[in-house]
Design goal:
Blueprint: H1 2-15, H2 32-57
Helix pairs in contact: 1-2
């Protein structure tokens, strides 16, 4: 069940658009709207890996 909670984090983080629907702060010339979404790519990969490892032991 903990695995499902890990997999819900990126879903909620990206589905809640008002959280990141702005331009500031800018990072390397990219508005917040874009780099926030791009930052979720490696974070989601790590969370999927953690959920997989946790599910493998149960």
């Amino acid at each position: 069940m903990k695995q499902a909670c890990l997999l819900l984090l990126p879903f909620v983080g990206l589905l809640w658009v008002p959280l990141y629907n702005r331009t500031d702060p800018i990072l390397f010339g990219f508005p917040f709207f874009y780099w926030y979404q791009l930052a979720w790519v490696p974070v989601t990969s790590v969370l999927i890996w953690c959920a997989w490892k946790a599910g493998k032991h149960s």
